[in-house]
Amino acid sequence: MVTMLQNIDRIRGMKQAGRKIAALTAYDYPTARILDEGGIDIILVGDSLGMVVLGFPDTTSVTMEHMVHHTAAVSRGVKSALVVADMPIGSCASPEAALANARRLIEAGAGAVKIEGAHSEEIRAIVEGGIPLMGHLGMLPQLVREEGGYHVKGRTDDEASALVDQARAVEGAGAFAMVLELVQAEVAGRISETVGIPTIGIGSGPACDGQILVTHDLIGLFPWFRPRFARPEADVAGQMTAAVSAYRERVQGAAGV
Predict the structure, then answer these.
(1) Which residue, of 6, 32, 120, 157, is most buried by count of CB atoms within 10 Å of its CB?
(2) Nearest alpha-carbon partner for 203 in 148, 146, 138
(3) Are the C-beta atoms of residues 35 and 80 closer than 8 Å to each other?
(4) Are 105 and 85 in contact (CB under 8 A)?
(5) Which tens digits make up the pLDDT trace of 225-248?
(6) Contact 64, 104 (CB under 8 A)
(7) pLDDT in tens, 127-173
């Protein structure tokens, strides 16, 4: 079993070695075990579970109870990968609350937590509490209702400069890595060159130090919506539909229906 600190050191070292980091999401034991056995570096228990598992329209209905439950399930399936758990909306109202909630996720089995936004005080409180933390900049899904949708960030000079400053602040507060979501590709490259910690992109171009996708998008398990940047490698939903239809026909045929 790889220890948490060994995993953090390994992820940090991959940037220095020029090795790309491969990350995917998981929300349950079998998926986590498959990803781990497939050699994925980071498994994120994302609050994206609100949409692809729980049927909410976005991540803003996900609670700490949801995250603790799914983090525990994922952790039971992982031996090697670094398990990172999302801090859901409302869980970082203060540095004290952020640390207390982060501890709940670590107790559930996570090796690190992830916070959306440049919340330096909350990040510092968690890191000083002995918990590894991953940042998350660019498009912040927890603000999707306020922003009226998912929009690429960094398209203007002011926005780009602000993102670089935020990345420096997140690194300075003690994060060991950061996700860049829907950041204009050139700006994501600038951030990746500016900070000394790994950047993991999602819809942010190839210059990041790694990439992450929602596993359901990768394997075609959520056919009702797929982000434009996600390239599916399989059609699991189609295969499941075919299997269900074949089963129904076999059962009904055997019953003489």
Answers:
(1) 32
(2) 138
(3) no
(4) yes
(5) 888 888 899 999 999 999 999 999
(6) yes
(7) 999 999 999 999 999 999 999 999 999 999 999 999 999 999 999 99
DSSP the chain: ---HHHHHHHHHHHHHHTPPEEEEE--SHHHHHHHHHTT-SEEEE-TTHHHHTT--SSGGG--HHHHHHHHHHHHTT-SSSEEEEE--TTTTSSHHHHHHHHHHHHHTT-SEEE-SS--HHHHHHHHHTT--EEEEEES-GGGHHHHTS---B--SHHHHHHHHHHHHHHHHHT-SEEEEESB-HHHHHHHHHH-SS-EEEESS-TTSSEEEE-HHHHHT--TT---TT---S--HHHHHHHHHHHHHHHHHHHTT-
Give catalytic residue positions.
Answer: 181
